[in-house]
Amino acid sequence: MKTIFTASITALLLSVHAGEAIAQNWRDKNEGLAPTFQAKNIYGEGTTILATNATLGFTNHLFHRPDSATAFVSTTTTFGGYGAVQSQIVKAKGALFAGTTDGLYRSTDNGVTWSRASAATGYIYSLYAINDTLYGGIGTGLGEAKMSVDTGQTWVSIGYPPFIATVFVKANGVLYVGSNNGLKYTADNGATWITPPFSSGLSGPIITGLAKLAGSVYAACSTGVYKTIDNGANWNVVLPKSMFSLTTIDTSLLGGTNNSGIYQSNQSGTNWNQINTGLPFVGAASYNAVNCIAYNSQFVIASLQGDSAIYVTNLADLGLNPTTPPPPSAIPDAANAQHNLIVHPNPANDAITLTNITPGSHVLICDIAGKTTFESVATGTILNIKTEGFPVGLYLIRVASNNEQTTIRKFVVSR
User: Fold this and answer.
1) pLDDT tens-digit series, residues 9-27
2) 4 forms bridges with which residues in the sheet?
3) Is-cis flag, bond preceding 345, omega within 30?
4) What is the mean pLDDT of the chain?
5) How many CA atoms lie within 13 A of 280 on its CB side?
6) Is 356 left (phi over 0), alpha (psi -120 to 50) or beta?
7) Comparing 9-318 with 342-413, is the CATH topology the same?
8) Is the pLDDT of residue 4 over 60?
9) Which of 84, 95, 98, 153 is buried most deeply by CB count within 10 Å?
10) pLDDT category, 220, cuts 50, 70, 90?
11) Average pLDDT over every residue of 76-88
């Protein structure tokens, strides 16, 4: 199957702001969240908002907000002690499911309480649900893509190559799986997997989002949002921005970027509008990376990296009127096995610092093409790394401790 990269970057840059102006007013909805809370994944349904904590070792990992007038309240579930919720929160057979560092958990009361859904399966980095079938990136180290037709009681491998599966979407009978090593897809339930060639822009970078809309499929990564209208045969870039998240709401695409805020397209990716009014600046004209975007019956909901607040804007302000249940829309960090590994600053310029490393851990950094740019063994709990020679872009940090626990973090070099 031949894949061709056909879009014109110049034309796209001219079309990013070509749409009509959209009124929006983002405001924070973080009442009840601790100052140290780092929002990662979010889920909305009815008037409820669920938010998960990206910080390992934090006592409370998932917060529940039943309506806009009530503050967030922590669930009492500890998800296996220090373990945190890693995956998107998804719905299947009337229940919510969350993948954690301690396996699969389930809620039957819209996220208020959680219990283990099945026997421990190890780390679950990502989850996706369609027609009551669950797909997940499961295991330690590189993990394995699996599927379950019985809400997680049993899992079957779908033959995906040994990469960390970060996001899934299924459309027109084709299953697309994004990983820390690009995109692959299958039309025969995993018997064969197809990799877009390097020229497509999707064969090597970390895939941070997958979405479907009106028969087309969209993939997000560090070089932009790509679109296919022919089940993966050809891909065109429709938004040349470094992306951290992607979702569909009603008839719109919404994409969260690395440092340019949030974009919306009401024309299947043809034209895009920046919708950042009310989002906080972190520089002269820069925003925190948008970890995930979701929605409920009232709001579009977004969480920003490095910012403890959840931000919302009214659906009507963006011209949205969804009639279907909200799809899960959150981008996992892929794998987090050590306690509270922190990478700062992020974005970086000439150096980064890793803190809370397990001494003796093997540290590896690679770029979006998979090329190793740094490799070392940590002798203490803090490691300073010079990045002045790193080209601008998205990087993956892999930290493996002596007991085979593996942590993966993303960071960006921006100058």
Assistant:
1) 333 333 444 444 455 689 9
2) none
3) yes
4) 81
5) 13
6) left
7) no
8) no
9) 98
10) very high
11) 70
**Residue 201: pLDDT above 90?**
no
User: What are the sequence ranges of the domains in the chain?
Assistant: 9-318, 342-413
Q: Six-digit token pair at 386?
A: 């010079």
Q: Distance between CA atoms of 251 and 214, rounded to whole angstroms?
A: 8
The CA distances from residue 170 to 189, 232, 266, 291, in Å, are 11, 12, 21, 22
With the C-alpha atoms ordered 312, 92, 202, 372, is the resulting torsion angle positive or negative?
A: positive
pLDDT, average across residues 289-293: 90
CATH superfamily of 9-318: YVTN repeat-like/Quinoprotein amine dehydrogenase (2.130.10.10)
Instruction: Determine whether domain 342-413 maps to CATH 2.60.40.3080.
Output: yes
Instruction: Spell out the residues 6+ positions from residue 338 whose beta carbon is closer than 8 angstroms to its own.
Output: 56, 356, 357, 358, 361, 399, 401, 405, 407
DSSP per position, 112-164: SS-EE-SS--S-EEEEEEETTEEEEEESSTT-EEEEESSTTSS-EE----SS-
Query: What is the sign of the dihedral through the CA atoms of 219, 220, 225 and 226?
Result: negative
Q: Which residue has the tokens 């302000």?
A: 317
Tokens matching residue 237: 């870039």
Would the pTM of this model clear 0.85, i.e. be above it? no
Segment 379-401 shows an average pLDDT of 87
Contact 233, 222 (CB under 8 A): no
